[in-house]
Here is the input.
Amino acid sequence: MSDPTPVVFIHGLWIHSAAWQPWVDLYRAVGYAPIAPGWPGDAPTVEQVRANPAAVADKGLDDITDAYAAVIAGLGAAPIVVGHSFGGLVAQKLLAGGAAAAAVAIDPGQIKGVKPLPFAQIRSGLPVLSRPGNKTKAVSLTKSQFRYGFGNAVSAEESDELFAAWAIPGPGKPLFEASAANFSKASPAAVDTRKRDRGPLLIVSGGRDHTVPEVVAKAAHALYAGSGAVTDYRAFPDRGHSLVFDHGWREVADYTLTWLNRQGL
Here is the structure.
């Protein structure tokens, strides 16, 4: 009997890795070997990260990608990587770099080459981007900022509950790197979208997402058009940026499992 396929879940900015636990449990129940490590500097619990925000400050996309690559190097086999938000960007980098067998990028952060910049995305990034000094700092969202960026497609009550459960300080650096990506020759938000000899990629979007609007996810998918490698797209029209950890998470998770099954993974 072969060993179960490893799966690495990668969280996004402002959300603790423990929010992936229902996915970890589900994937394990169907035969995978899942883990959900945090970003560099993250502590094991939400409370510990909130108590020491300086530990996550000044971490950029390369730092985060390298940290997950190091985790993957210890697994013994190339995993499936499932990332949300900036975790989705990192998942694409790991796939293009040959570290992953397949990737699922859910509401993925903006990669280099994506041109649409909707107002909702600008507003969602303002808590960080409005102050240049935030590039080297850790920044926390307020409850109302979380409601706009993550919880706009769920009730106000659920948004507040999700904020209380999972919101953590996050480094400002990735947002500055992504926002400047199209003006940088060597951006850490760059992904080799023309690579042919990579595993399959699924990009998932939420139609009501403010942080990564659907037009941004569609533009990322379009960049892969000439690669020849499997690159699929699925939208959930009524979902916002909290789609992987709000009450409707199971619908998204089940779809990813169906897609992986179709890829023979």
Observations:
- The mean pLDDT is 96.
